[in-house]
Every structure is written in structure tokens, then in C-alpha cells.
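This is your field. Have a critical look at both lines of this record:
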Amino acid sequence: MLTVSLHGIRIIAPHGLYPQENILGNHFEVDVDVNVPTQENSEWPFVDYVRLRAIVHDAFQQPGQFLEGFVKIIHGAIKQEFTDAGNVRVVVRKMNPPMQGHVQYSQVAYEA
């Protein structure tokens, strides 16, 4: 099994539940892991991590409020573009979410 990963993709986008988040924007961080089956005696598949970064960027160009929605969009787009992909893990973090107290990030992860 071959794993291609991009971790710590940083995005600033005007998404969130509260009105000020849609004006000021939020800092997001995304991790992507794509597992692709391999065979020793054949050419290994190519997963273009530049395309992975573009998929993440494009997801945040769409309207949305919830991390779950962005995870779903990113996961679906990766599975659609990289049809050889087996397991895909997507993690989206909102850095310093607007809430009382100090919280470094909130996070939603999906793997299938």
C-alpha cells in the first residue's frame, strides 16, 4: 500500500457559524492521506499532491459553515479524481475557534 500525504495545508476563508466569521474569516488547516494499492511487480500509481492541494483550495471556495461539510467535499473530490485510491483520510481543523477560553483548534476527521 502506497500512502501519499499532505499535512498542514493552510487556508484562510470566510466560513463559520457566526456572522463575524463570515466577515473576518478563519484560519483552517487540512491534512490529507491517500492510500493506493500497489503490487511489487508492476508500476506504482501516481497521486499528484499538487492536485490534492488544489482540491482542498477549491473546497473552501464553496459556501459552507461546518467542518463536516468541507471534509465531505474534499473526500468526495479526491475519491472521484483518484479512482485507484483505497482509503482516504481527510482532517479539517479550525484554528482558534471563537469560543470562551483558549482552544487551539476544533477538528473533524473522516476516513473511508
User: Anything to note?
Assistant: The chain is about 30% helix and 35% strand.
